[in-house]
Structures are given as structure tokens and as C-alpha cells.
Amino acid sequence: MEKPNIIMIISHDTGRYLNSYGKNIDTPSLNQLAKEGIQFNNYFCSQPQCSPSRCSILTGKYGHNHGMLGLAHLGHTMNKDVKTIPSEMKHAGYDTWLFGFHHESINGSSDPEKLGYNHIRKSINHTASKVTNSFIDFLTEQKANNNDMPFYASVGFEETHLPVDHFEPDPIDTVEVPPYLPNTHGVKHDIAHFHGSVKELDLAVDRIMRALKNTGFDENTILIYTTDHGIPFPRAKGTLFDSGLETALIMRFPKNMYGKSIIKNQLLCNIDLMPTLLDLVGEDKPKDIDGRSFLPVLENDNQQIRDSFFCELTWHDKYHPMRGIRTNQYKYIRNFQDGPQVYLPLDIHQSKAGHDVRATYNKPNTEEELYDLENDPLEQKNLANDADFTYITLSLRQKVFKWMKETDDPLLFGPVPGAEAEGWKEEIAKGNVYISE
Q1: Are 75 and 130 in contact (CB under 8 A)?
Q2: C-alpha angle with apex 382: 378 to 386, nearest 5 degrees?
Q3: pLDDT in tens, 230-252
Q4: CA quadruple 392, 395, 399, 401: dihedral, nearest 10
């Protein structure tokens, strides 16, 4: 059987903020992709920040296992010996391509070739429109050259990362505020402009889908859309709440290999994507990964591959160490340092929405958090000290610490070194930041 091409479109900070996931926004192209393929409604990242999450997608490993504990541009990097999707795809006979945005490094190098890409196509910038121009040119060239070598392509967009004020907003009175945020003008303003960024992403997906059809590559291509973590709003990105960990995953297969217009509700984690893709192309999976192939889920609606996954945050643009576990019913979070009740990444902290919630979030956190996701999906009521949930708290705490010990989590040996973003100095000087007592 001819091996399918694989295209992974990955956007920045989009969470599940799409119409097909129930959000009040017009995303017709991604809706169409979901109708033609499979949408995963219970798919999460294990880390709610860019570089570590993207490295987990690439390697099938949790963050402290692949080594990337913070952002690449602030000095963090993966271990030198990790295997990646593009490196393993090369072993499977694929030509590997990178288009647009990437935010990973390995052994101190951000060179995409070190990650396993044979070819890097640069564009003027990493906006969806410019990256899509470059990718469509590539498809046209592949068609003209009659190249029969299968390709794996990562197509990275900077949308929907902040800032988004330069995008045409939806009318502010039409947007819906996420239920975990206050209904303030600043929050609604940011959401209205965020809509414009999501629509720009959707337009690019439409152009790629049309180009695939026009070149005939849609007949033998697995087309994937995903993102790195939750949306760039307070109490989402940078937190271990579901709003920070939830991510979209939509996959369209050639010749209806696994059907179309299908919804999968099984619990999955983004560390599971790498082994799944290797299974799909018949390549052996690395033995030391944490992820599990969800090929059985594709083949059987009743199949489950996991009942929980671990989650973590160490560094983003500021140190905020947390570890946790999410099951189908519960979320347990352990905070390893005194800090704000809710960490806000700098770009969110400085946004209008961030300005509206700072005072509420700049309160001391607690050492442990436990949430009943069935009865409290917004994770508002911490049950860690509730006597009725003592057994659940103890059980999940033990699982987290067992995992940390078995994997030599560096957090067990003290604070993990790193550098704060320069912008925090000004915010501290203004008195806008939580200061530990």
C-alpha cells in the first residue's frame, strides 16, 4: 500500500476555540475539515505553554522527559538524544518539510534540521497567509515534478497568539465570554479581536484544502489540524485547568480510511499523536516514549487507551512550578512554590483582559488543588481539604509523586533554573505582580 503524505497544520494558542467545538465563531473551513474527517473532543496537551507542549507533540514524551521545561527563546531546550516525528518519518521513507513557525530546540540548537527536517521553507513572516503561500507553492512544485516520495510537512502559523488587536474584530456585543472569565469590556474587547485571528487561521486552512484538491494530493494525504495549548486568556494558557490544557485535534484521512464526520470522545493527550502517526505509516515506535498510539480508537468507537494523563508547568516567561494529573473525573494539581492563585503569562497579563482580572488572581495559591470535573467542570471549587475527598486527594497525590520519582523530575531536587522575560521587571516596578511573602 502506498504510504500517505502527512500534513500537520499547527496554530498558536487556539485551544478548542472553533465552531465545531461549540464556540460562537464562524470557522467554516475547519467545520468542513471536521465533517470530512474525525474530530477528537477530549484531546488535551500535557503542558499549557508553547515550546514544552510542541516538543511533547514531536517526541511523545512529557516535558521533563524530553527536557524542554520552558520557552526555547529563553534558553530552554530538549535533550540531545530524543527522537521526533520528522526524524522518525525519515526512517519510514518520508521527505520531511517545515513551513513557517516552530518553537522547539534540541541540545541547545533551534536549527530545524536538528529536529529532523530535510527541508525548511522560510516565508516573509509566520502569518497564516504568508506561510500558506509558501506551502501552496510547494504543493504545485511537487505536482509538477511528479515526485512520488511521500512527504511529512509541518505547517506552523503564528495565529492565534497575542497580540491580536490588528485583526478585524467581530462586533463586541456578539461575542460570548468564556464562563470562567468576568463579563468585562476588556475581556470582550480581546475576545472580539481574537475572533479575527481565528478567522484568519480558518481562511488559511480553506486555501490549503483547496490546493490539496486542485493538485490531487487530497487523494493520498492525512491532513491534521491541531494547536499547542489553550487560548491566550486569563485562567487558560499557562494554567493546568482544562481551559489551559484543552486542544483541538481534527484528522482527515484519504479514501475515508476511518470514515468521516465522526466524533471521538475518548480521553487522549498530545503525547499520543507521535506514536499514532508512526503506527499509521508502519514505523516502529521508540520504546522510551510516554505516549500511546490511539490507532485502536480510530478502529473501534468503544476502545479506550488511557484513563488519565499527567500535566506539568515549570517555566513559561516566569517560574511557576506545578505538577498534576487529570482523570476522566478528577484533576489534581500540586503547586511547588508560593505564587499567584492564577499565573498569567506576560502577554496575557498585559492584555486588556489581564488588566481586568489581575487583582482577583494576585492572591496566594494553595499547595494542593482537587476538582471534581463531572460536577464542577469550570474547576471553581477546590476539594483538596474536603474530608469527603481525602482518599481521592491522597491517591492522586501518590500517583503524581510516584511518576515524578520514576522519571527523575528535576523539580524534586529544588528550583529549576531559568530566566524571566524582561517585561516582568517593569510590571514589578509598577506593583502589578504578586510578590511572595
Answers
A1: no
A2: 140
A3: 999 999 999 999 999 999 999 99
A4: 100
pTM above 0.90, yes or no: yes
Specify the length of the chain in residues.
437
Q: DSSP label at 154?
A: E
Residue 48 CB-density burial (10 A; 0-12 exposed, 13-18 middle, 19+ buried): buried
Question: Angle formed by the axes of helices 185-215 and 352-361, to 10°?
Answer: 130
3-state secondary structure 274-336: HHHHHHHCCCCCCCCCCCCCCHHHHHCCCCCCCCEEEEEEEECCCEEEEEEEEECCEEEEEEC
In this structure, the number of other CB atoms found within 10 A of the CB of residue 38 comes to: 21
Alpha carbon distance 208, 202 (integer Å): 10
Of the chain, the end-to-end C-alpha distance in Å amounts to 64
CA gap 356, 183 in Å, rounded: 10
307: its cell numbers: 484513563
**Maximum C-alpha span of the chain:** 68
Per-residue pLDDT at 1: 57
Give residue limits of the domains in the chain: 5-308, 312-429
Question: 15 near 230, Cβ under 8 Å?
Answer: yes
pLDDT tens for each residue of 38-85: 999 999 999 999 999 999 999 999 999 999 999 999 999 999 999 999
CB 6 within 8 A of CB 220: no
Question: Thinking of the domain 312-429, which architecture would CATH place it in?
Answer: 2-Layer Sandwich (3.30)
The secondary structure element, H or E, covering residue 153 is strand 151-156
Tell me, what's the pLDDT at 123? 82
Which residues, 6 or more positions from 103, have their beta carbon under 8 angstroms from its beta carbon? 50, 51, 54, 71, 72, 73
Question: SS3 of 386, please?
Answer: coil
Cα dihedral 125, 48, 116, 291 in deg (nearest 10): -150
Q: Quote the DSSP letter at residue 364.
A: B
Task: Assess contact for 364 and 403: CB atoms under 8 A.
Answer: no
Q: Which three cell numbers stand for residue 135?
A: 506551502
* Residue corresponding to grid cell 524534586: 412
Question: For domain 5-308, which architecture applies?
Answer: 3-Layer(aba) Sandwich (3.40)
How far does CA 85 lie from the centroid of its chain? 16
Q: In this structure, are residues 371 and 331 in contact, taking their beta carbons and an 8 Å threshold? A: yes
